[in-house]
Design a protein that fits this description.
Keywords: ATP-binding, Nucleotide-binding, Transport. The chain has 325 residues and is an alpha/beta fold. Helices cover 30% and strands 25% of the residues.
Length: 325
């Protein structure tokens, strides 16, 4: 991974939401992460861990409270010189072209009055200023790239299944050969068989164009099969980063082990150790001084409640935030 070009760098990124009664919610807390060319980076964790908020910030769809976002070494978002930074005009257009996002529910992406062909032609007419004839030919090619026939060009969204709509969303997202594809639970609403097809499709086009993928998911099997790097988040913080191939075998953080224990396979050892989470999660609306996981960790000691552990390398490509690893 060290030899792959860094496309996006998220540096100490935080996001705080203002709530009622003068309360705040820290959704993302000082997260640093890099996305590299040709690498699929997956972020996993329970609902509310901050993974989707992080993805939206990376796509410049959510304002940043603290930290910075870099694109090919140049800051394009976050806080700069104490003030929120925002790009506009051609710079924003270029970023939107090179960093595409696929959302969880494909139905919400489409206008019910717009034909699929018109939807697919938009990137070409908007970014590349192609003629309608050229855009139509390219849109038909986009359909073929996701293994759909030309008959879909004149259909409306309500005439398609969820899996077909997600294929169309992917076709549009990869139309202009983006450098980064952000998938926010892009397969979670689909049947298992369709999930595998969609991920195989993304992998097929990644092999062709070598784009980076940020894959947000709670499906650990998909993550293990398709990701080169896995990031585990809990209550807005990263607790472990590791190689995708080592995800199941070499996880070291107690929370990661508990996540993996929740997924059973017919190939599992019947005598394998099961990690059970006890206690209540800490409130994200309060100030957490120690480890975010200490309330539910069977290994927690006094130091865990006093000091937040930092990510430390334990082998190449593997970092863990735990005092006892």
């Amino acid at each position: 991974m060290e030899n792959n070009q860094e496309i996006i760098c998220l540096e100490n990124l935080s996001k705080t939401f203002e709530l009622r009664y003068h309360k705040t919610l820290r959704a993302v807390d000082a997260v640093s992460l890099s996305l590299h060319k040709g690498v699929c980076t997956a972020i996993v964790g329970e609902s509310g861990c901050g993974k989707s908020t992080l993805a939206r910030m990376a796509a410049l769809l959510e304002p940043v409270t603290e930290g910075a976002i870099y694109y090919k070494g140049q800051q394009i978002g976050g806080i700069k010189e104490g003030r929120p930074m925002s790009i506009r005009g051609e710079a924003l257009r270029a970023y939107r072209q090179h960093v595409q996002m696929i959302f969880q529910d494909p139905v919400n992406v489409f206008s019910p009055r717009m034909k699929i062909g018109t939807f697919l032609m938009e990137p070409w007419t908007h970014f590349e200023k192609k003629s309608k004839k050229e855009a139509r030919a390219l849109a038909l090619y986009s359909l073929r790239r996701v293994h759909l026939g030309e008959e879909y060009f004149d259909k409306y969204p309500h005439q398609l299944s969820g899996g077909e709509l997600q294929r169309i969303a992917i076709a549009r997202a990869i139309a202009l050969h983006p450098e980064v594809l952000i998938c926010d639970e892009a397969t979670s609403a689909l049947d298992v068989s369709i999930q595998q097809e969609i991920m195989a499709l993304l992998k097929e086009h990644q092999d062709e164009t070598n784009y980076a993928i940020l894959f947000i998911s709670h499906d650990l099997a998909l993550v293990e099969n398709f990701s080169q790097q896995v990031v585990v988040m809990y209550l807005g913080r990263i607790v472990e980063i590791m190689n995708g191939a080592a995800f199941r075998m070499h996880a070291r953080h107690p929370y990661t082990k508990a996540l993996l224990s929740s997924v059973f396979s017919i190939d599992d050892d019947p005598n394998k150790e099961i990690y059970v989470l006890d206690g209540e999660a800490q409130s994200a609306t309060g100030t957490i001084t120690g480890c975010v996981f200490c309330n539910r960790c069977s290994q927690a000691k006094d130091i865990c409640r006093r000091e937040a552990p930092v990510l430390k390398p334990i082998r190449t490509g593997h970092q863990v935030a735990c005092h006892f690893v």
